[in-house]
Amino acid sequence: MTNELIFIIHSSLLSLFVLIALSLGKEALVALICLYGVLANLFVTKQIAFFGFDATASDAFTVAAILGLNMIQEFFGAAASKRAIWINFLCLGVYTVASQLHLWYTPHILDYTHGHFCALLEVMPRIALASISVFLFVQYIDRTLYGFMQRKFGSRYFLMRNTIALILCQLLDTILFSFLGLWGIVEHIWHIIIISYAVKLLAISIT
User: Fold this and answer.
1) Helix (H) or strand (E) holding 192
2) What is the CA angle 173-176-177, rounded to 5?
3) Terminal-to-terminal C-alpha distance of the chain
4) Which of 132, 167, 173, 179 is the most buried (most CB within 10 A)?
5) In the beta sheet, which residues pair with residue 56?
6) What's the pLDDT score for residue 13?
7) Cα–Cα nearest to 32, from 78, 67, 59, 68
8) This prediction's pTM
9) Considering Cα of 112, then 34, then 18, then 26, what sign does the dihedral take?
10) CA–CA separation, 138 vs 63, rounded Å?
11) What is the dihedral of CA 137, 162, 85, 11, to 10 degrees?
């Protein structure tokens, strides 16, 4: 199975999970957004070949998280959306602290996993700090932009409002996070930015 087909399936499933969470209520949506935030941080350092270019493996999660946030604001109001942002901020902070505490434990002589955890989590403080800062800022911008369009159009044109918010916020997210979180970790940073944003646009079109 190709990476391109996997990505289409991945993005579709993440969007489907957002709709399922919406049917379960506000709390399920908030929990899912927080889970997507943690998974995006965990998977962001894996580079994949995508249509012959380098890309990261976590772009679908950030798009789906913003989609979930827009759903909260659409159906449960701006106050619920703001609360979801701060809950997500807390969860990312807990994940960052917990991942570093995990590395501090001295492994048993028979343990064979510590090296793998180190490779995966040693860069996590920088990535998580960048992610927390950027995600909080971008979600605030999304909430403000989406709220403006909601006041202007009411409940009409949901697809248009959601798409515009996703396109603009993901551009901002891609540029800021790439420089703050990935500079010096991955190669070809501008290449990553362009391809990552193109991948996010594809994910937006799938959602």
Assistant:
1) helix 189-206
2) 75
3) 21
4) 173
5) 47
6) 94
7) 68
8) 0.79
9) positive
10) 11
11) -100
